[in-house]
Amino acid sequence: MTSPLSSSASSRVEDAVREVLPGVRADLEALVRIPSVSATSPDEVRRSADAVVELLRSAGLPDVVVLSSARPDGSPGMPAVVGRRPAPAGAPTVLLYAHHDVQPPGTPEGWASPAFEPTERDGRLFARGAADDKAGVLVHVGALRALLPAWGPQDGVGVVVFVEGEEEVGSPSFSAFLAEHREALAGGAGSAGPDVVVVADSDNWSVDTPSLTTSLRGLVDATVTVRTLDHAVHSGMYGGPALDATTALVRLLDRLRDADGAIAVPGLRPTDGPEPTGLPEVTEERFRADAGVLDGVQLLGSGPLAQRLWHRAALTVIGVDVTPIERASNTLAASARARLSLRVPPGLAPEAAFGLLRDHLLATAPHGAHVEVELDESGQPFAGDVDGPVYDAARAALARAWGLASADDVVHAGVGGSIPFIAELVEAFPAATVLVTGVEDPDTRAHGHDESLSLAVFERALLAEALLLDSLA
C-alpha cells in the first residue's frame, strides 16, 4: 500500500503545495468568517456546509453532497459534507475527516480582535475556528489541490472527504449518520470501507515538532442536582439548623477529590488500574506555561504529568446553577445543580465511568441532602496502534514536512481531550488504519478566547498530508 518517499517525488509535491498555499490560506479566512456555531446557529452551519461543498469541488472531487441524519431525540442533525473520488483499480481508499462547525466565541472583550474576523499577528492567524477545525478542512482541500491535477483516473488513491457539522456539540447524530450513509463513507457501492482514516483535528507536540495522537480520553457529561428544602426560606428565620442547597452542593463537589486534588471516586482513582509507561515527558514548566497556571497555584495529583493528562480520569466542574450575586437575597436556596465533565481514560467504558461517578455522589451526599445525577452526554475513548506501513508512511511524511532528521523524531502523544466518533469509525471499519493528526499546537487555545493557528504548522500539516497521500498511491 505504501512506497518510500523518494526525493524527486517529495520535491514535486512540495512545489505543488507551495503553489496552492496562498489560495488555500485565502479560502481558510473566508470560511472562518462564517460563524458556524453548531450550538446556536444552524443557519450559519448550513451556510458553512455550502461553502465546504464549493471548496471540495474546487479541489477536483467529482462527487460532493450535503448529508444529514436525525439525532436521537428526532431533531435534525447539522449538515455534513461528503466528497468522493473513486479508487483506481487496486488502490487504497483514504477517508479524510474534519469538521466545519465551531465553538461559541464567548465574550467579545476576551478577544484582541473580532472572533470571526481572521487577523494575523506574529505568524499566527487569530479567529474562532481558525485552528479547530477549519484549518483541518483546508488541509484536506489543499492536499487535494496539490495532488489531483497530476493524477489521472488510474493514478493516486481513492478519497472520501467527510466534513462533519456538529462535532462541537458531541456529534449527536453520528451513529445514525454512520448507519444511514455508511456506503458513502466507505467509498461507494461494494466497498468494504476505507483502508486509511486521517482525522485532522488534534494537536502537535510543538510548532517545531509534529506528533501523531495515539490515545484520547472518553467523555461523560453529567448534571448533579442537590435539594435540601421544598421551597426557599428566609435565612434569618431558618438559617442555622436548615441547610441551604448551595452549601450542600459545594460540600458534595469537594468530596470528589482527596487532599492532594486527585479524584476520590472509587474505580477512577490513579491506583485503581495499570498505567502505561514509556510516555513522552511533559515538564511542569511547560505545562504551567501552556495552561496559564498562575504562580503559586499547585498542580493536582501525583505521578508523571503525561499519565495524569492522557491516561487518568479528569473531573471538572464546568457549570453551576445557583443564585447569581446580583439577584441574591437573604434566602436559603432550596436547590442547586452543577454540570460535571469527566474525561474517561482508555480502557474504561463511559457507561461504567458514569455509574462510578453517580454511585459516589449518591453515597457521599452531605447531611442527608437529596441528590439526583443525570447523564447528559458520553463518548468512547480511543487507543491506537503505532505499528505498520501506514504509520511508517505517516511518520516519514511528517518528518519531511517539518524538516526533522529522522521519522523517529515524530512524537507519539496522547491527548486528554475527546473525539468520541473515532471509536465508532473504528467499529464500523475495523480493517482501517486510523491516523489522528494535528493542525494545532500548545498555543492554539482551542475553545478559548484568542484561538489561533500557527501558519507554519498549517503549511507543514498540509504538506505532510499531501506527501502521505502520494506515498499511499
From TrEMBL:
<keyword id="KW-0645">Protease</keyword>
<feature type="domain" description="Peptidase M20 dimerisation">
    <location>
        <begin position="215"/>
        <end position="367"/>
    </location>
</feature>
<dbReference type="InterPro" id="IPR002933">
    <property type="entry name" value="Peptidase_M20"/>
</dbReference>
<dbReference type="InterPro" id="IPR011650">
    <property type="entry name" value="Peptidase_M20_dimer"/>
</dbReference>
<dbReference type="InterPro" id="IPR051458">
    <property type="entry name" value="Cyt/Met_Dipeptidase"/>
</dbReference>
<dbReference type="GO" id="GO:0008233">
    <property type="term" value="F:peptidase activity"/>
</dbReference>
<keyword id="KW-0479">Metal-binding</keyword>
<keyword id="KW-0378">Hydrolase</keyword>
<dbReference type="Pfam" id="PF07687">
    <property type="entry name" value="M20_dimer"/>
</dbReference>
<dbReference type="GO" id="GO:0006508">
    <property type="term" value="P:proteolysis"/>
</dbReference>
<protein>
    <submittedName>
        <fullName>M20/M25/M40 family metallo-hydrolase</fullName>
    </submittedName>
</protein>
<dbReference type="GO" id="GO:0046872">
    <property type="term" value="F:metal ion binding"/>
</dbReference>
<dbReference type="Pfam" id="PF01546">
    <property type="entry name" value="Peptidase_M20"/>
</dbReference>
